[in-house]
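Tutorial, part two.
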Amino acid sequence: MNKVFLILFSILLPSLIHCQSKSYNEIQIGFINKKELKNAGISLYAENIKSGKTIMDHNSDISLIPASVFKIFPTSIALELFEPDHKFKTELAYSGVISKEGVLNGNIYIIGYGDPCLGSENFSSHYNKNGQLLDLWANEVKKMGIKKINGNIIADISYFGEINIHDKWIWEDIANYYGHQGSALNYYDNLYHVHFSTGNYDGSKTSITKIVPENTGISFENYVTSSSSTGDDAYIYPGNNNKERIIRGTLPWKRDNYVIKGSMPEPELFLVRNFTEKLKNNGIEVSGTQILISETDKNIKKVIHTTYSPELQEIAKITNIKSNNLYAEVLGHHISKITGKKYKDAVTDFLRSKNISTEGLNVDDACGLSHFNTLTSKQMSEFLKYLEKSSPQYNYFFKTLPVSGINGTLLTSYKDTRWSVHAKSGSMTRVRGYAGYIINKSGEKIVFCFIVNNYNCSSTQMRKIFEEMFKNIAEK
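Running the prediction step on this input gives:
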């Protein structure tokens, strides 16, 4: 009997050792003891939702910078406050009187109500299914019998009012494509594209070949040089005013058409300028100019046409999967508008109403671009647990999250049909975090939030370290 026992023990021992090495505690210790994280701030929390058992907990109550993990708040809260099928509107209207001769003695208005993605390429089939958006609007004006406008073309952003650039966003960010604060009247994702031709050796000059769209009204000073060793390392900076931009940094050498994106400083005026040209091209004379108003004027307006956005659930999905800062910021403005509170107060009050601690939570923006945002991994995990257990819109929110190996930037190295990770990632210089749900190979759902600040390696290396931990957890 003893001999049989010893044989069985010798067979099972390697398996037992292997299982022990894959314990959650071992996975956690292996992660925090990585040499790349020697000087880092680390906050980890994970819990099996069904059993309620905490499976990881390391510094879960310390505050760290979450980067785009913060987008979980505006997308999920907006879905609860507005319903998933909500659509945001933009109105084309006029004031004054139309004469028998087709002369409008009044103004044309484009009135924004906070559509984050009006005219966006992310939803081109939605806005252009009946022809180009501005062509459609011009045709609607023609249908009114208007041949001449004795007045102005006005961009009305009074729904939100004037929105200032976040004063805690860094200088390097605010003129680049991800650094727009949003408006009641956004257009074409508030973007422009700068096309470069780069040189043939390190340090050689680059030249700007074109700007798309052409009529941005912006002038550029180009100090970008060519490099054999970097990718896109060029940044757009504000100049002396809204019509000036300075571009510095490096771009890959030997490229005929390398494109970077910038943030349109006045997308509302860009829209009404383009619409004015479209009206003129359609034979409608405009005697006035283009104006931006942030407070409603007293003129009585009649709506010519209303354009509706895609459903909120689709906007929230693009926000999280593509980590779109503009959409997150605009959803934040909507949350502020509907609650009558500052965004930071709306978020903290929402969490408190769900009995979630807000200690350590600091809300500076909606998109996560500010380095002054902080949260704890326990806090975000508790919020995600609330969504899974109690939110009426959880299923819609869950579908907005990137899925491992499928979409977004989440775990691109792994695609395993036995398990999956559904989570929002966040990254900026020396910051990387993830929050969401792991469905392990046993079909159990694990809620988690992992954040690391000030690691000692490249962003790519840090991503791989996280991916290794996700794989170990999911296969447990």
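The chain has three domains: 31-84+326-332+339-474, 89-162+266-310, 188-263. In part three we will examine how such features are distributed along the chain.
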